[in-house]
Amino acid sequence: MRETETADVTAFVGAAGGAGTTRTGIEVGAALAAGGREVAILDAAFATQGLADYVGGRIDPDLTRLLVDDERDLSTGLREVALPERVPGRVAVCPAHAPFERLARAKRVEAARRFESLIETAAARFDHVLLDVPPIAANQAVAAVNAADRIAVVAPASDRGTEAIQRCHERLADVGTGASLVVSVRGELETADVSVPGTEATAVDAAPACLGGDDAFARAIQRVAAAVTEEELAEPEAGGGGLLGSVGELVGR
Fold it and tell me: What letter does residue 177 receive in the DSSP assignment?
């Protein structure tokens, strides 16, 4: 755990559905874990529930059950993401994986307040907290961006993505906040602060793909990790171990 009492919280907000927000959060979490950090990822994307795909076994309780049952501690809903043994840190996710009836209850105002409380708990226990947030259209998404210290808007590198970024900026302004960073995925956008190229390792079981070496995808994820931690980027050395070594310098204690 770092020296400060609580971790900064970053909300990865999808500018549009299917933007790649969940995968981006998993990759950035793994990059930070490569530097020895402990990372929590909490799921606000109740409709897609994609974060659940990155962990094995039964998910019970899931995040929505924690939101409707305030007697359960955050630790009961955390699941470990499998990382290579050489990675000194960890990534623990709290995914949503629930029937429609409970999803509906978890979107209520009182559940959103509970979500903010869980985010605070995670910030007290982890070095970094990442939030997987869908386009802003429900109470849990509003709670997530209001609880975050910074917001990274994620959009596909397409005309659709460009239009969605503008709508996302407007929606964030509507709820009294704004973006700190814009990330385009699967290509470049002029309006993006960081562009992440596509990767051939698209399958869920291939993630995280950023730990495999010093390619364009790994370097881009490193830049996102640098931006969300507000740390100066350490350039990888040629043949020097790729992301694992450079992010270790980036977020090293």
Answer: -
Report the 10 Å Cβ neighbour count for 252.
11
Domain residues of the chain, as ranges?
8-248
Select from 34, 129, 40 the least CA-distant residue to 89. Answer: 34
Strands laid side by side in the 90-94 sheet: 79-80, 90-94, 38-43, 128-133, 8-14, 150-156, 181-185, 194-196
Q: Which pLDDT belongs to residue 243?
A: 39
Looking at residue 2, what is its pLDDT? 47
Give the chain's residues under pLDDT 50: 1-3, 233-253
Q: Rounded to two decimals, what is the model's pTM? A: 0.90
Element (H, E) at 196: strand 194-196
The pLDDT of residue 52 is: 96
Separation between Cα atoms, residue 227 and residue 233, nearest integer Å: 8
3-class DSSP assignment, residue 230: coil
Task: Tell me the per-residue pLDDT of 178-208, one tens digit each, with 9 for 90 and over.
Answer: 999 999 999 999 999 999 999 988 899 999 9
**pLDDT for the residue 241:** 38
* Alpha-helix runs per DSSP H in 154-209: 159-174
Q: Which amino acid is at 245?
A: G
Name the token pair of 57. 């076994």
User: Any idea which residue has 């019970």 for tokens?
Assistant: 60
Q: What is the DSSP letter of 96?
A: -
- How far is residue 216's CA from residue 231's CA, in Å, rounded to a whole number? 20
Q: Which residue has the tokens 């043994």?
A: 85
Cβ proximity of 125 and 154 under 8 Å: no
Tokens matching residue 149: 């210290």
Q: Which CATH class is domain 8-248?
A: alpha beta
